[in-house]
Each structure stands twice: as C-alpha cells, then as structure tokens.
Amino acid sequence: MSDVRGGDGVRTAMTPLIKAIGLEKTFRTRGRDVAAVADVSLEVARGEALGIVGESGCGKTTTARMLLRLEDPSAGKIIFDGTDITTLRGAALLKFRAQAQLVFQNPFDALNPRFSIRRALAEPLNNFGVPIREHADRIDAVLHRVRLTPPAAWLDRRPHELSGGQLQRVVLARALIPGPTLIVADEPVSMLDVSVRAGILNLLREARDALGLAAVYISHDLALIRYVCERTMVMYLGQVVEEGPTKELIANPAHPYTRALVAAVPVPHVAQDRAQLPIRGSLSDAAAIGGCAFRGRCPHAMKICIELAPTLRTITPTRRVACHLEGTMS
C-alpha cells in the first residue's frame, strides 16, 4: 500500500495504481551480462508523484522504461491497476499504453518534424482507436490545458516554428491526450532554458492535480524533485539505496550517497552541510562484485561493507535505507 498526504497533513493508505516487485534488467554487453537494474520494488498511488534520482547510469531511466513496458524486465513483476502487465502483448499491451504515457526529455526529437501540431496530437488518438468525431474536441481541450491558446493559432504550425518551451507543451499535450492515469516524465525540463522550466513543471503539476494522475519523475536534479514529488527513491548502480518522503529525505539524508547528492546540488530552503566529503570518483569506480557497491566511493566504508551487501531496511515508518552505518538518522 502507498501512503499519500491529505489536506489535513495526515498520511492515509491507498491502493497503488502501479506496483513493481523485484524488477531486474540485464543487458548483454561485450560477451558478458551487465545488471542495469537489480531487485527494484516500488509503488505509486493515484494522485501521487514519485521521484527517482541518481547519477547517469544508475538505472533510473531503465526502471522507468520497464514500468511503461518499453523494456521487458529480465525478472520481477509489474502490477498496474490490479493487473499483471509484465508479459502483456498485442492489443492488451496497447490498451495499457493508452493509460501510461511518457513525457520525453528532448522535445526536438519527440515530434515528427514533418507533422503539423494537429497531426502530432491526432496520431495517438488514431493509435488508440479514439473515434475521429472526438478528435477536434480532445485536441482543443488539451491545448487549452497546456496553455497553447487559442488552439487554432497552433494547429497548423510545425515543430521548427515553435520554441523549446512551446514544443515541450506540445509533447505534454501529446502524452495527456489519450487520457492516461500514469505519466512518466524523463528529465522533462533538462533540455529547456532555465527561464521556461518553471512553467512546464507547473503545467505538469496542474495536470496531475486536475486529472488525478500518478506520476514518476526521472531526474538528477533534487531541486526539481523537491518541487514536484511527495516521495523520492535514490538509485545507485541499479539498486535502491534510499527511499522516503522527499522533504524528509533531502533535509535529513540517511545514506552517504544521498548526503553527497544533497550537498552537491543547491536545494532552496534546505540548510546544506558543505563540510561533508564529496563523492569520490565516478560510477566507473564502482566496487567489485560482493559487498556494498558504493564502498569504493564512500567516506565511511567499513570492513563489513566489503564482506556483506546491505539490504534495504526500514528506519522509520516512511523511510528505507540500504547502509550498514548505525545511527544514520541524525
């Protein structure tokens, strides 16, 4: 069960819209198997937003692609709205994809440059079998939702005629137009100028609130995650190392990796300990198989970190961390 915070500030249990259990993904590279994701479990309720953060190569995008069934898991299960979608194919998979949509990172690559905005928005409606008589009303409504108004002024334009921010509004409209219940946004504003990022994030929040959407945000930007997500999951080398309410996790990170991420990225309104040791090295300096994967970069590595991989354990009713350090909560 997921828990979301109501208007009175009390957390209440809700059935998850999407739940992943023990997800794993292994790729064959240069004659050997490489684990991109290892034993990741998560759940997101309707109306809730989960952020997945970590360095490039940590497995967050692969996890998101498995949730959308754009990648098939090597192991594990994905339950969506009570149905196991792990092995769906054909018409059943298409029906699921109408309910779970991706907001792409790069708006310049997400749209066919030859298509008008009208055609770009009609394409998913055609793919999901929406009657043509409904197209005009749906397109008009979704352009109003992303504030491209009046719609008639945008319908016959092509991508090269729009700015990056305007294009990302079209990308968001394209994700919303099938009527999904889950949105996955992969670095949705990283390709945009700083001056337009807040506008796109506000549109995402407004759409989520108005439509009751569940959302998963993939990002390396903790300031963004703090702004849009109630809960955050931190990944390192394909594994979850910490999870909890976003504000608590940023204000009081429990895992050394999370602490370093928070210290490295300015987060508004959060006191930051710049005296903390920064992360040493990079993902290429990951520890050998066995023990804690982070030990080669951790300023607090102990003997047990070499001998035994930490498991994700509960440290408060809403917080989990995979670390051998005792008293990680300050």
Order of strands, main sheet, comes to 8-9-10-5-11-12-14-13
Radius of gyration: 21 Å
Broad CATH class = Alpha Beta
Q: Distance N terminus to C terminus?
A: 27 Å
Fraction of residues in helix: 25-40%
Which regions contain 5 or more consecutive residues with pLDDT less than 50? Answer: 4-12
Count of individual domains = 1
Overall mean pLDDT? 87
Task: Quote the CATH topology.
Answer: Rossmann fold
Classify the beta-strand content into a percent band. 25-35%
Q: How many beta-strand elements?
A: 14
Structural class comes to alpha/beta
Sketch the topology as an H/E string, one letter per element.
Answer: EEEEEHEEHEHHHHEHEHEEHHHEE
Q: Architecture in CATH? A: 3-Layer(aba) Sandwich
CATH superfamily membership, which one? P-loop containing nucleotide triphosphate hydrolases
Tally the helices. Answer: 11
Gross geometry: globular
Largest sheet descriptor: 8 strands, mixed
Describe the structure.
With 330 residues, this protein is α/β, with parallel strands linked by helices. It has a single domain (2-237), classed as 3-Layer(aba) Sandwich (Rossmann fold), CATH 3.40.50. Helices cover 31% and strands 25% of the residues. It has eleven helices and 14 strands. The strands form three sheets. It has an eight-stranded mixed beta sheet with strand order 8-9-10-5-11-12-14-13, sandwiched between helices. A four-stranded antiparallel beta sheet has the order 4-3-6-7. Mean pLDDT is 87; it is low at 4-12.
